[in-house]
Every structure is written in structure tokens, then in C-alpha cells.
């Protein structure tokens, strides 16, 4: 078990990639704190982990609530003595062009996709510095490295995550803390519903993926989870400030 007895926090872990990432960390020996705004979803993730012999707990927190996030992380630190891994995954996809996007939606996208990552990292960093080690993974997207049609809020925030990741990595490497970004491509989860609707339905998005993605298919959440495991474990021990794109080759064409 390559994460034996490490304490990990995963935000947005009630479904999709976040859930799969939490599960693979638990499988490899980590104690996983599952954060999701839905208590039921978080507890369902924990139940799945525990059923398979892992260890986890659920915290129902809206990561855009600074006080709730601060209290939750402080409680984890008090009970466990430290946090070894933070995977900032909670996010939202808001569609629209410059003229069409709802301004409130743009603000929400920034708050969830960027600011909440910033706050969670800020809250765990003192304990990681004190320990002389720690790993933070911020979820960006393939949309953080390329153009994404009529998705100005999403692409802006996901590009910002990459810049923030590199800045964190440069500032905190001297303390033994590594910070990297994960950029998934097309993963078949409900998260993509806004883009699927914008594209004209399931058939249209399937055709788009067959044409634009060299591997010609969606990724599974389990494939993305393997990449998460690499980033949070010692398998990537000499890697910081980097962007891991897992997109079936879309960004190379």
C-alpha cells in the first residue's frame, strides 16, 4: 500500500472523478476525508470505501463557505495531527460566451473552481510546512490548456488553476510540499451535462469525441483515478509545478 496511514482530503468526492480518486487512495492505505456539499453523496462514497476494507469519513461542506471549510480542516488536523494529501477537485461547468454567460454563473465558477482551491490549500499549508512534506493536487482540465467552445467561465477558471498551481509549487517546494495540477479530458460523468446540452445532445458529443480525441472515446473515472494516485504518491516524488494532461491525445492535434 503506497499511501499507508496517510491522511487525505478530497473535495467534491461524492461522485465522479472525486469519488474514484478517494476510493483509490483508500485502497492504497490512506485515511480519506470525503468532502462534498451533499451529505448523502459523501456518505455513499464512504460506504463504498469501507465496504472494500478502507478507512474514510464524510464531511458535508460547501467549499465556498470559508468558515465551514476552515472549521472542517481544523477538526481534521486536531483529530489526526496532520494532513498529508489535499486533492482540490470540487468544481462546476458553466457554459456561455462572453456575451451570453450569466455573470452570477461566472462568479460562481470562479469561486468554486479557483478560490475554493486557494482557500483549502491555504488552510492545509501550515501543517504541511511544519511536517516538511505534503502533496496538493488541483483539478484543472484539458480546457485549462486549450480553447473550449463557448465556455469562457470554465476555460478562464481552469487556466487560472494552472497558474495558481505553478505559483504554489514555486513558493512551497523549499518546505517539501509538492503541488501539481490534473487536467482530465472527456470523462463520462454527469459533470459534462452543460456542455452536452450546449453541443446538442448525447449523439452530438459522442460524434465530437470520436472526431477530436485521437483515442476516440471517453475516459473512465478509474483511468483518471490512476493518474491521481500517481500525483499524490511518492511515485511522483520529484515532480512539482507540473500539469498532467490525461485527455486521450486531444491536446496534441
Indicate the topology.
Elements: E1 7-11, H1 16-27, E2 31-36, H2 39-51, E3 55-60, H3 66-80, E4 85-88, H4 103-131, E5 134-139, H5 152-172, E6 177-184, H6 193-199, H7 202-212, H8 221-232, E7 243-246
Parallel strand pairs: 1-2, 1-4, 2-3, 4-5, 5-6, 6-7
Helix pairs in contact: 1-2, 1-8, 3-4, 4-5
Summarize it:
By secondary structure, the chain is of the alpha/beta class.
Characterization of the model:
One of its GO terms (molecular function) is glucose 1-dehydrogenase [NAD(P)+] activity. It comes from Rhizobium fredii (Sinorhizobium fredii). Its EC number is 1.1.1.47. This is Glucose 1-dehydrogenase. Keywords: Oxidoreductase. By secondary structure, this protein is an alpha/beta fold. It has one domain (5-244): Rossmann fold (3-Layer(aba) Sandwich). The chain is built from 8 helices and 7 strands; from the N terminus they run βαβαβαβαβαβαααβ. The protein has a 7-stranded parallel sheet with strand order 3-2-1-4-5-6-7, sandwiched between helices. Helix 1 links the parallel strand 1 (7-11) and strand 2 (31-36). Helix 3 (66-80) runs parallel beside helix 4 (103-131) and helix 4 runs parallel beside helix 5. The N and C termini lie far apart (37 Å). The model has no long low-confidence stretch (mean pLDDT 95).
Distance between the termini: 37 Å
Percentage of residues in strands: 15-25%
Strand line-up in the sheet with most strands: 3-2-1-4-5-6-7
Architecture per CATH nomenclature, i.e. the level-2 architecture: 3-Layer(aba) Sandwich
Structural class by helix and strand composition: alpha/beta
- Which percent range fits the helix content? 40-55%
In CATH, the homologous superfamily goes by the name NAD(P)-binding Rossmann-like Domain
Rg calculated over all Cα atoms: 17 Å
What's the CATH class, please?
Alpha Beta
**DSSP strand count:** 7
The number of helical segments is: 8
* Parts with pLDDT < 50 across at least 5 consecutive residues: none
Outline:
globular
